[in-house]
Amino acid sequence: MIRSRTTVRRRAPAWTVGLLLGCTVAATVPLGAAPGPDPPLRIVVIGDINASYGSVGYGAEVHAAVRRIVQLKPDLVLAVGDLVAGQQTAPRLDTERLEAMWRAFDEEVLDPVTAAGIPFVPVPGNHDASAEPGFALERRVAWKYWRDRRPRVDFAGNADGWPFRYAFTFRDVLFVVLDATTVGPLSAGQKGWLEHLLGASVAPSARVVAAHLPLHPLTHGRERETLADPELERILASAGVDLFLSGHHHAYYPGFRAGLLQVGQGCLGSGPRRLIGAGRRAPRSFTLVEIDSGGHVRVEALAEPDFTAPIDPALLPEAISHDGAALVREDLARGRGAR
């Protein structure tokens, strides 16, 4: 049973029945009656599935999560980076090892998901496609792996940036993937591309932006590993972005700041972390997102070991504050009038 579910209302509700846990509800519609609303778009968001540096293969939690995702059969899986365990420095990983890591990902993660008919959309992370010069080989191998594995989505504009920076639409929702694998603000060029893209999009029902690094810190030990980019946050808020998804901090937290819902994902691989203000480490988890035809967004996380039990938002810190910036837990922000 779902104990609590976070909800963001963008406009008047246009639907009443969700399918968040894969339940099907049948209804009798009289002949000649107007058709009901479309079912909500259901997205599973995963991230940080890698084990220790250089690992080939995945832990039991990743396998359990993949089985649960296939069982849920969402419309889309979006992965916010760190899909393999790169960035080892002593010794550096060579091409043979990197390709073995990606083959394991293919066999253990991507194949089961796509075989179930679920499109899989990647976001670059620091452990699989870092833009730091010292990891150029890892980034080239990642590009080679994804080059011919584009999901069946409608790419928006020029897709030359695939798989590192690109946008697509799916069921009237605009998704934008940012190349954000290094600490600090995005380049002016990437922010200009994003601002133009958001301004040129034709009134989608919702806008979702995903990056590996978060805008603000969420967990102990990673307080400085963020984008820390007020201009980017302004662009997202002014364009009416409904949801910003991130990884890297290894803990689930849905928070509002300046009218923007920002959701950090729990990890599925090594190193779950403790949220700032929390007493214990976060569980491994993945996030379920529903977006209905009216643009309303709902988020919830399912936790290890079998990814059936939801994380109760009431157990998360009421707010996460650092260096004068605060993310207010989504259910509390909504109670105070956040959209």
Architecture overview:
Strands 5-6-7-8-9-11-10-16-15 form a nine-stranded mixed β-sheet. It has seven helices and 16 strands. Helix 5 (188-200) links the parallel strand 7 and strand 8. The chain has one domain: Purple Acid Phosphatase, chain A, domain 2. It is of the alpha/beta class.
Task: Give a concise summary.
The protein is α/β, with parallel strands linked by helices and 339 residues long. 23% of the residues lie in helices and 21% in strands. The protein has a single domain, classed as Purple Acid Phosphatase, chain A, domain 2 (4-Layer Sandwich).
Which helices and strands occur, and which strands form pairs?
Elements: E1 6-8, E2 41-46, H1 60-72, E3 76-79, H2 95-115, E4 120-122, H3 126-129, H4 136-146, E5 154-155, E6 166-170, E7 173-177, H5 188-200, E8 206-210, H6 230-238, E9 243-246, E10 253-257, E11 260-264, E12 285-291, E13 297-303, E14 309-310, E15 319-322, E16 325-329, H7 330-335
Parallel strand pairs: 2-3, 3-4, 7-8, 8-9, 9-11
Antiparallel strand pairs: 1-13, 2-12, 5-6, 6-7, 10-11, 10-16, 12-13, 13-14, 15-16
List keywords for this structure.
single chain, 339 residues, alpha/beta, Purple Acid Phosphatase, chain A, domain 2, 9-stranded mixed sheet, 7-stranded mixed sheet, 7 helices, 23% helix, globular, disordered N terminus
